[in-house]
């Protein structure tokens, strides 16, 4: 049984022009020990999926799904308390901007201390438990590569550089020993050496502790090094998903092909200083969604049938939603 199993997740949000489907029939599953990449250009709905999973959406928005299970339990029918317990103890989230997730009015020591569950502490007097919290926090900071733990724990978020705050946010997310880490662009804005350090740390946690990771990122090179599987989103719809190696070798959806072509590291045949290819146009706003396949107006393979929504088709564990997929033309 997958840890997280989502089938046909739809999210409707109210805009000035009425209700729009920001997420349309999203499928996503994560097994134990799996690293799944979630990719798509800006505005494709990655963060909305993350927020739907952790239940951090405004109450007035409509979330429906045929299935949205955590370890076989339906997340959508749970009470707020049950859901909070899961997001506190079993899955953790690291968002792309640490300054928005950390409390500006508390020191980092206070913040990580609060996120250490009581179950991790031995019984004892309050000062003994305080010392234990400090030791656990210190060990956690060392694991993510923060050496000067005293300075870090006594500082407020604005007193430290962003990359240290981001490493701290990762340490805090891992302190409850979660089964699933949802990392939403965790290395955005980091310099290369720090980025490599964080990616290595996540890969190590996956290998040694069996941590499952939903890795949301624009960084295809990092993704291809880390992920076992990949889900590609376009404009709130799942366009392709499957094993990373398979999709990299033989993408079936034109959008996936365009994403891979736009990353220099995936183009072995690219001459020096050659222009990178990219799709014409931009992702439509939610208020002006095309009917049928949402990629239609930008798709180099679009034909008349694309005004109808393509069904999800499957070849073994490779899923795609396209009327005219690549590599599938009949001779
Ligand atoms: N609170 C909101 N109110 C209205 N529309 C929203 C809201 N949050 C997101 N959206 C819209 O939903 C769509 C998906 O947004 P989302 O933030 O999930 O994209 P994303 O793929 O995570 O982008 P990025 O990679 O830039 O973070 C966008 O069109 C965005 O404008």
From TrEMBL:
Alphabetized CDD domains for the sequence: ABC_NikE_OppD_transporters
Subcellular location: Cell inner membrane
An annotated GO cellular component: plasma membrane
Record domain ABC transporter: where: 4-260
Membrane topology: Peripheral membrane protein
Alphabetical keyword list: ATP-binding, Cell inner membrane, Cell membrane, Membrane, Nucleotide-binding, Transport
Coiled coil (UniProt feature): none
Matching Pfam families: ABC_tran, oligo_HPY
Signal peptide annotation: none
Protein name: ATP-binding cassette domain-containing protein
Organism listed in the record: Bowmanella dokdonensis
């Amino acid at each position: 049984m997958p840890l997280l199993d989502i089938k046909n997740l739809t999210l409707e949000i109210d805009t000035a022009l009425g209700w729009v489907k920001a997420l349309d029939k999203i499928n996503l599953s994560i097994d134990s020990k799996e690293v799944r990449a979630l990719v798509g250009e800006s505005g494709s709905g990655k963060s909305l999926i993350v927020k739907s999973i952790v239940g951090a959406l405004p109450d007035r928005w409509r979330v429906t799904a045929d299935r949205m299970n955590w370890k076989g339990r339906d997340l959508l029918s749970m009470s707020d308390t049950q859901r909070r317990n899961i997001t506190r103890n079993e899955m953790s989230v690291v968002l792309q901007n640490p300054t928005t997730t950390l409390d500006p009015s508390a020191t980092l020591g206070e913040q990580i201390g609060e996120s250490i569950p009581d179950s991790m502490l031995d019984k004892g007097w309050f000062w003994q438990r305080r010392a234990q919290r400090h030791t656990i926090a210190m060990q956690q900071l060392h694991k993510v590569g923060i050496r000067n733990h005293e300075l870090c724990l006594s500082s407020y978020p604005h007193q430290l550089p962003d990359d240290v705050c981001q490493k701290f946010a990762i340490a805090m997310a891992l302190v409850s020993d979660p089964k699933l880490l949802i990392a939403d662009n965790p290395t955005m804005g980091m310099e290369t050496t720090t980025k490599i350090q964080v990616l290595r740390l996540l890969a190590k946690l996956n290998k040694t502790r069996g941590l499952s990771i939903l890795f949301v990122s624009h960084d295809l090179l990092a993704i291809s090094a880390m992920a076992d599987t990949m889900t590609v989103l376009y404009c709130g719809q799942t366009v392709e998903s499957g094993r990373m190696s398979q999709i990299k070798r033989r993408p079936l959806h034109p959008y996936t092909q365009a994403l891979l072509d736009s990353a220099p590291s995936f183009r072995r045949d690219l001459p020096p200083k050659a222009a990178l290819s990219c799709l014409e146009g931009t992702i439509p706003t939610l208020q002006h969604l095309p009917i049928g396949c949402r990629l239609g107006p930008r798709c180099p393979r679009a034909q008349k049938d694309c005004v109808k929504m393509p069904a999800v088709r499957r070849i073994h564990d490779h899923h795609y939603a396209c009327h005219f997929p690549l590599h599938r033309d009949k001779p």
